[in-house]
Write a structure and sequence with these properties.
Number of domains: 1
Shape: globular
Largest sheet: 6 strands, mixed
Bound molecules: manganese (II) ion
Strand order of the largest sheet: 4-3-14-7-8-11
Number of strands: 17
Number of helices: 5
Radius of gyration: 17 Å
CATH architecture: Alpha-Beta Complex
Low-confidence stretches: none
Order of helices and strands: EEEHEEEEEEHHEEHEEHEEEE
CATH superfamily: Fumarylacetoacetase-like, C-terminal domain
């Protein structure tokens, strides 16, 4: 096989304790999955069906790299999230066996051009310009579930320059990880390599150049990113 131009490089995430990398297929992100964040964004925290948007695999920003402040915005927000990385997939995955699809977990950021997202919400248009830009998904190395288990409670927080901005607990998720896998698998054929960003607790807010972002999930790990 030849190509008309060199194919793009496969996007991969490093895996703690392994020389083998995790090849990324798709990135699904759930919206408003912590009640207090739904309220701060002006919405009802009831358990409505979840909704998802996507980022592109090459939007991932690997640990150790800086986050470049993106173009066409004056209001970039941080959202710290637990990332779930699938090692297998399928259609119509039962909730009680869904965790069997999980390869591991990471600490991630759903960086958001909030001003552009807000304009798109008002117009009833898709969110891509607010969500799926270059480097919009900083992500730690993956921590395999066979080392850390399947965290369903524990602190999730974000600090900027050492000060708390977001604080929540994984047990505050409206849609739990197995439920999200089931829901997505009824709409899409999930595959090994798919990643799910599971939503953010309350306290989202703007970042500026020079900020040092520190995200943390108990039982998973840490992610530190500089805004440049
Ligand atoms: Mn988010």
């Amino acid at each position: 096989m030849t190509y008309v131009f060199p194919p793009p490089k496969l996007v991969t995430l490093p895996v703690r304790g392994s020389d083998a990398a995790f090849p990324v297929h798709r990135i699904y992100c759930v919206g408003r999955n912590y009640a207090a964040h739904a309220v701060e964004m002006g919405h009802d925290p009831d358990k409505d069906p979840p909704f998802f948007f996507q980022k592109n695999p090459d939007n991932l920003l690997l640990e150790g790299l800086d986050f470049p402040y993106p173009a066409k915005t004056d209001d970039v927000h941080h959202e710290v999230e637990l990332a779930v990385a699938l090692g297998s997939g399928g259609d119509n995955i039962p909730t009680d066996s869904a965790l069997g699809c999980v390869f591991g977990y990471a600490v991630s950021l759903d960086m958001t051009r909030r001003d552009l997202q807000g304009q798109m919400k008002k117009l009833g248009r898709p969110w891509e310009i607010g969500k799926a830009f270059e480097c919009s998904a900083p992500c730690s190395e993956l921590f395999p579930a066979d080392q850390i288990g399947h965290p369903d409670h524990g602190a999730i927080w974000l600090k900027i320059d050492g000060e708390f901005r977001q604080q929540g607990d994984l047990n505050q998720m409206i849609w739990k990880v197995p439920e999200m896998i089931t829901y997505l698998s009824e709409l899409f054929t999930l595959q090994a390599g798919d990643i799910i960003l599971t939503g953010t607790p309350s306290g989202v807010g703007p970042v500026k150049r020079g900020d040092r972002i520190h995200g943390h999930v108990d039982g998973v790990g840490d992610l530190e990113v500089a805004v440049v």
